[in-house]
Structure formats: structure tokens, C-alpha cells
């Protein structure tokens, strides 16, 4: 193989090691502005090469010319001495996956004109341009190499007949016919009859066989160690739209093979990120996977690590006494342990379970959020890790200490003034201890009171962690103190803490976040006369409740929120969750009204409020923000509604991200008038 640096020069690739200027003086560092919301590069998906010498990963940057995010694949040497950009097209690339012999790197991309579907492309490490491997009419959404490198297991979507390309773009679209119970999904749109199937693809002949041609969706394929079977997930109930009961199946990689049910478990087909691919024990005898508990608890349930015989049978929960969420299980090479990520009160850490005695070791403990990892040879582990002072970066971990491999944000970090993020703990109204954070501007002076923003996380089942939170830093650079809590309903504190808001949105959690404000006021940090509040998604929902219950806030920003829960039934993507948690509106009207507090008590709101939402948000649709905007406009409370054209629940277009950040600053600045640092 050619020397990597020489090959990079010959092929025109960009070989670059980001080394910041040494010890930039604090006086030269600048405050952050709304512009910085697009400055941080997003790092994801680390993958260790088979020989353990390289780690491939994805870097997403904002393209100011085309006004979009663009993702490309990089790799860094294990010793950290070289970083090489492998792809640099006008289109994004993702999901780098090494062939077992290390000669090729496969990835997903939708390169070409006329908006083609995503396909697998191959990059030959000996040199040359990347070339397309698959050519399906639908998107390839996931793939994995077989152990011998001769085949791929693929999840491929059926072609959507409603998607018009080429000359068809000028034709009048056909009517959209809806006949499914779960009929819409954010980012996807209205759901038709298209499904995602498991294919096996021969790399040499390029022949593809659909192993699961039926009317079900399959996901997360994983080859057995000997290549004789593929494990995957599928909900094969009579009407899979109505529940989250999945099956873990295995199937032989040949046309006409029948899938074998290994076990059933509670999963999630919504926008949850906790679903994790199954992992084979190296001897092929068992599979590890993640399962939820009581189906009625939906996403409030703790997610446990389970193990089941590959031939089928009753699974055993191996983290039940932990009472914490776990994700991403991987068997160790010797089959004696299972690695996973453990979420626990403001942190998420790489951990390992000793299968023989059940002992759990936290391999990377402390104030951090590890969001991804990959096991390599020779005990090498690549981790994706973040702290309050550093955005996500790829690290080499040898079991004892970490060493940073990616440096894409170093130069930016060296140029800006960062605020200090501290952990806090305080009592809520009923005495329950609540965890959170307070962010103090650079140059903070003890004893001086600051305009303060209560910032509320979404979910509700998620948590603020010891990771880099860019909006907090931008707010702090403009003179604000930020206080954030993980109220009841948040994850990281066990199932009882999470389910405390079940059927009671805005109840105990509103008391908890208001307790955070009380705490920073009592500590002499927050100016009680200059308080603001904001959040997105459930953070916006709870913002609406807070300003309906407490009039001391002088400004509020509510993003993608809902307050009239009756309006959500049938108009957003959570139909299963509504019926499991709140029941049917015509049978449980009181429950729906109880959870619509902010809308039904809008006349108590005195806080000037800015509402924002994506035009095509199917998660928490625009109509909900329109209702709250209309209510405050009718009441004469200062308000505006900002609609981002074409955007879904997560705003992604760089100009809109900057616009939203600037509007936050302008709205709160208008009513709180913070001193700029």
C-alpha cells in the first residue's frame, strides 16, 4: 500500500492535522456570537480499521455557499500523527465501514444529479476515486460486511413512487393516499406502503437477493461470526403500526431462506435514539441486545441489556438492578464481557459487564458524555467523547487512558472565550433533589447578579450531560448566566424519576425547573428582575407551562412546542404514545385537558414570548405553535411566530440556525438587556 501521506498528495486529498496556535493569550480570545452556531464541526461514527492502525469517522461542516451541512469521511492514524480527508465531493458521505481485510472502505452517499437514492460506494485504499457499488432504486439505509468480505447485508427502502425525478418533476403529483395507523413521520413525511427490506449483496457479481420481501420493516443487520446467519430486528405483528413489540430474528444469507424468531422485546420505531444493533458473542452461541420494559411506559421505561441464546429462548436481563439506561452493546473478543454505554445523572460513560459475575466497570468515568465507540484489535477502542469545555472528538483508548485523534475544532476553541459550566444540585418544591448546571460568563464576578436564562431540554426523556452545549456558550458570551436542570421526566436517574411525569406533563417537572431558578437567585447569581426562559420541543412545551404558572419571567422563547394536547392527537407522529400514555381522547378527555395547562390558562401568561417552528415539522407540528401565538396575540401579550420554510423538527439549514440563535439573543436582549462581556 502506498504511503498514506504520499497517496493523499497524489490523489488531491487534503491531508491536514489541525494544530492550534500555541497558548493564544486570553486577551486575544473573543466572545461568541450567533455566527458561531455553525462554527463547530460535528464529529461522528468512529470506526477502527481491522489492523487497528487507523480510525475512520465523519465530519460535518456548514457550507455557507450552498447553505447546507456537508459530511465527509476522514481517518486518523492510531498514533495521532496523521489525519487524512478521504472524501470531498459536493454531496455528503456517511457510515464508513472497513472491509474485513482492510483493503476497502465502504460508505453511503447520494452522489449525482437529480437527487439519487443513497447507495454504497467503495474507496480502494490502494488509491483511485471512490466508485458506486450498489444501484438500488431505493435508499440503502444500513449495511455491514460479511466476515469474509465477499458479501454485504443491506437494509434497502422500497422506491417511493411519489418521489419525482427528472422529467417527472414537472408533472402534477398524484394524490397522497393514507391508510396506515402510523401514517406520518418527521423527516420522512407521509408513510405509504414502502418498506425496508434485508438484502444480501454479492460484492463480486453485484447480485442482490431480497431475504425479507414481505410487508414488514427490517433494521440493524449483523452477521454471525462464521457468516452463516444474519441477525436483524423486525416488528412482525399483524399491525406493526400499533405497538413497539419487536422480534430479534436470524436468517441464512441466501434467497428463499426463512427467518427464525430468536426472542421478542420492546423496541421503538419513533424518533428515539436508544435502539441498538444486536451483538453476536464471538463463538456465535448468544446475542446481546437492548430491551425496554413495560410497553405502557413507552420511552419512559429504562432500557436494559439482555442476552439470549442464538438458537432462541427466553432472554435474561443482565443490568436489571442497575436502573439506568444502557445502549450499544458489543461483546469482547474473548466472549467474557460485554461493552456498552451507561447513562447516569449528567454523564454517559463507556462501561463493561463481566458476564460471569455480573460486575460492571466504568472504563471511562467522570464528567463526560461518550456517545459512540468502536472495538478494534489489540484491545484498541475508538471513542467519541465530549466534555463541557470540548465538543465531540475521536479518542484512542487503550483501556487505561485516552488520546485525542481528531482536531477539527481545536483552532476555533483556541480563538473563543468559553464560559464556566458547573454542576449544581438543589431541592424542588416537595424536597426532591434535582441535578443541573449553571453556566457563568467569562469574567464572572462573584456577588454580582446577572440576567439569567432558564434553558429546558427536550425529550422529555433525555438529560443535559457534561458535554459541550454550544447555545449555552453563546448566551454566556453575551452576558447571561444559564441555569438548566434535569427535572423529573429526565433520564439518568432511574425509572421512578423518569415516570414521575407520566400522564402529568408540566406537573412535577415545572416545579423542578422553577426550583433551579430559585436556587440561582438564592445563591446571589441570578438577577430576579431579569429572568428569561426557553427551550425546544418538550423544552418549549415546559416553557409554556412555566410562564403560565409563574409571571416573574420577562422573556420567553418557545420552540416547536404544543400546549393544546387534543390538537396533537392524529396530527403528529406520536399516535402510539398518545394512546398508551393518555388514552383515547373521547374516553379520557380529563387527562388531555390536564396536560393542556398552558393553552387552557393562556390568560395567565404575561411574559413576552417568541414562538418558532419548522414548517414541515411532523414531530411537534407548526399548528401547535400557531395556536399559542394566536392565544397571546388575542390577549395582547407581546409575541411573534417564526416559521422556517421546509425545515423539520431539527433545524439544519445553516442560515436558519444562525437566524434562530440571533432571534433568541435579540428577543431576550430586548426584555432583559444583558451587559455584553
Strand order of the largest sheet: 31-32-34-33-35-36-37-38
Distance N to C terminus = 53 Å
Strand content: 25-35%
User: Mean of residue pLDDT?
Assistant: 93
Characterize the biggest β-sheet: 8 strands, mixed
Q: What gross morphology would you assign?
A: globular
Measured as a percent range, the helix fraction is 10-25%
Rg on CA atoms, Å: 25 Å
Number of helices: 11
Short structural summary:
The chain is an alpha+beta fold.
Salient structural properties:
8-stranded mixed beta sheet, 677 residues, alpha+beta, 15% helix
Q: Your description of this structure?
A:
The protein starts with a helix and ends in a 5-residue tail after the last helix. The protein is 15% helix and 33% strand. The protein is built from eleven helices and 38 strands. The strands form nine sheets. It has an eight-stranded mixed β-sheet, with helices on both faces.
List the helices and strands and how they pair.
Layout: H1 4-11, E1 42-48, E2 54-63, E3 68-77, E4 83-85, E5 93-98, E6 104-109, E7 119-124, E8 131-132, E9 140-145, E10 151-157, E11 184-185, E12 189-190, E13 196-202, E14 208-210, E15 218-223, E16 230-234, E17 245-251, E18 260-266, E19 279-280, E20 286-291, E21 304-309, E22 316-317, E23 326-331, E24 337-344, E25 347-354, E26 360-362, E27 369-375, E28 381-387, E29 390-397, E30 402-404, H2 410-413, E31 420-427, E32 433-440, E33 450-456, H3 470-477, E34 481-486, H4 495-498, H5 508-522, E35 526-536, H6 538-549, E36 555-559, H7 575-582, H8 589-594, H9 597-600, E37 609-614, H10 622-635, E38 639-644, H11 654-672
Parallel strand pairs: 33-34, 33-35, 35-36, 36-37, 37-38
Antiparallel strand pairs: 1-2, 2-3, 3-4, 5-6, 6-7, 7-8, 9-10, 10-13, 11-12, 13-14, 15-16, 16-17, 17-18, 19-20, 20-21, 21-22, 23-24, 24-25, 25-26, 27-28, 28-29, 29-30, 31-32, 32-34
Amino acid at each position: 500500500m502506498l504511503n498514506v501521506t504520499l497517496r493523499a498528495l497524489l490523489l488531491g486529498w487534503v491531508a491536514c492535522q489541525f494544530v492550534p496556535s500555541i497558548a493564544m493569550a486570553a486577551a486575544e480570545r473573543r466572545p461568541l456570537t450567533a455566527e458561531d452556531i455553525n462554527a463547530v464541526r460535528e464529529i461522528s461514527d468512529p470506526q477502527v480499521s481491522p489492523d487497528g492502525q487507523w480510525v475512520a469517522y465523519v465530519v460535518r461542516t456548514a457550507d455557507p455557499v450552498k447553505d447546507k451541512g456537508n459530511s465527509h469521511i476522514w481517518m486518523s492514524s492510531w498514533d495521532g500523527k496523521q489525519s487524512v480527508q478521504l472524501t470531498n465531493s459536493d454531496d455528503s458521505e456517511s457510515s464508513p465501514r472497513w472491509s474485513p481485510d482492510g483493503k476497502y472502505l465502504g460508505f453511503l452517499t447520494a452522489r449525482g444529479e437529480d437527487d439519487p437514492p443513497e447507495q454504497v460506494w467503495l474507496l480502494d485504499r490502494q488509491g483511485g476515486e471512490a466508485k458506486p457499488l450498489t444501484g438500488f432504486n431505493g435508499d440503502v439505509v444500513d449495511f455491514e460486511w460479511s466476515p469474509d468480505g465477499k458479501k454485504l447485508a443491506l437494509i434497502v427502502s422500497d422506491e417511493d413512487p411519489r418521489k419525482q425525478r427528472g422529467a417527472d418533476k414537472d408533472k402534477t403529483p398524484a394524490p397522497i393516499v393514507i391508510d396506515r395507523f402510523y401514517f406520518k413521520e418527521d423527516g420522512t413525511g407521509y408513510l405509504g406502503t414502502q418498506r425496508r427490506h434485508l438484502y444480501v449483496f454479492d460484492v463480486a457479481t453485484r447480485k442482490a437477493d431480497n431475504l425479507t420481501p414481505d410487508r414488514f420493516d427490517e433494521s440493524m443487520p449483523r452477521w454471525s461470526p462464521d457468516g452463516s446467519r444474519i441477525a436483524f430486528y423486525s416488528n412482525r405483528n399483524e399491525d406493526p403500526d400499533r405497538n413497539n413489540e419487536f422480534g430479534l430474528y436470524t436468517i441464512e444469507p441466501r434467497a428463499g431462506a426463512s427467518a427464525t424468531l430468536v426472542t421478542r422485546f420492546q423496541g421503538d420505531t419513533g424518533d428515539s435514539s436508544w435502539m441498538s444493533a444486536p451483538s453476536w458473542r464471538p463463538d456465535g452461541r448468544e446475542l446481546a441486545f437492548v430491551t425496554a420494559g413495560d410497553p405502557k411506559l413507552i420511552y419512559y421505561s429504562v432500557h436494559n441489556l439482555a442476552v439470549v441464546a442464538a438458537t432462541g429462548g427466553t432472554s435474561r436481563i443482565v443490568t436489571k438492578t442497575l436502573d439506568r439506561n444502557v445502549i450499544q452493546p458489543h461483546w469482547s473478543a474473548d466472549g467474557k464481557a460485554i461493552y456498552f454505554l451507561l447513562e447516569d445523572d449528567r454523564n454517559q460513560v463507556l462501561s463493561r459487564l463481566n458476564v460471569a459475575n455480573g460486575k460492571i466497570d466504568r472504563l471511562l468515568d467522570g464528567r463526560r458524555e461518550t456517545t459512540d465507540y468502536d472495538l478494534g484489535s489489540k484491545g484498541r477502542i475508538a471513542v467519541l467523547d465530549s466534555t463541557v469545555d470540548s465538543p465531540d472528538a475521536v479518542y484512542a483508548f487503550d483501556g487505561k487512558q485516552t488520546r485525542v485523534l481528531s482536531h477539527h475544532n481545536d483552532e476555533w476553541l483556541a480563538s473563543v472565550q468559553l464560559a464556566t459550566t458547573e454542576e449544581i444540585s438543589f431541592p424542588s418544591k416537595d424536597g426532591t433533589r434535582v441535578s443541573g448546571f449553571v453556566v457563568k460568563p467569562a469574567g464572572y464576578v462573584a456577588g454580582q447578579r446577572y440576567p439569567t436564562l432558564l434553558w429546558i431540554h427536550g425529550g422529555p426523556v433525555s438529560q443535559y450531560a457534561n458535554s459541550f452545549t454550544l447555545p449555552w456558550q453563546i448566551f454566556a458570551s453575551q452576558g447571561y448566566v444559564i441555569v438548566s436542570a434535569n427535572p423529573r421526566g429526565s433520564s439518568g436517574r432511574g425509572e421512578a424519576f423518569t415516570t414521575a411525569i407520566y400522564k402529568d406533563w408540566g406537573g412535577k417537572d415545572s416545579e423542578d425547573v422553577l426550583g433551579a431558578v430559585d436556587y440561582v437567585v438564592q445563591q446571589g447569581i441570578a438577577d430576579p428582575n431579569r429572568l428569561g426562559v426557553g427551550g425546544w420541543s418538550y423544552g418549549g412545551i415546559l416553557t409554556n407551562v412555566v410562564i403560565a404558572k409563574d409571571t416573574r419571567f420577562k422573556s420567553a422563547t418557545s420552540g416547536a412546542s404544543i400546549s393544546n394536547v387534543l390538537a396533537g392527537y392524529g396530527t403528529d407522529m406520536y399516535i402510539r404514545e398518545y394512546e398508551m400514555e393518555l388514552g383515547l381522547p373521547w374516553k379520557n378527555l380529563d387527562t388531555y385537558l390536564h396536560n393542556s395547562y398552558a393553552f387552557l390558562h393562556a390568560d395567565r401568561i404575561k411574559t413576552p414570548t417568541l414562538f418558532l417552528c419548522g414548517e414541515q415539522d411532523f414531530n411537534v407540528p407548526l399548528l401547535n405553535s400557531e395556536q399559542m401565538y394566536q392565544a397571546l396575540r388575542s390577549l395582547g401579550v407581546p409575541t411573534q411566530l417564526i416559521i422556517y420554510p421546509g425545515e423539520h423538527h431539527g433545524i439544519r439549514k445553516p442560515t436558519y440556525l444562525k437566524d434562530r440563535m440571533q432571534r433568541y439573543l435579540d428577543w431576550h436582549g430586548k426584555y432583559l438587556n444583558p451587559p455584553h462581556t
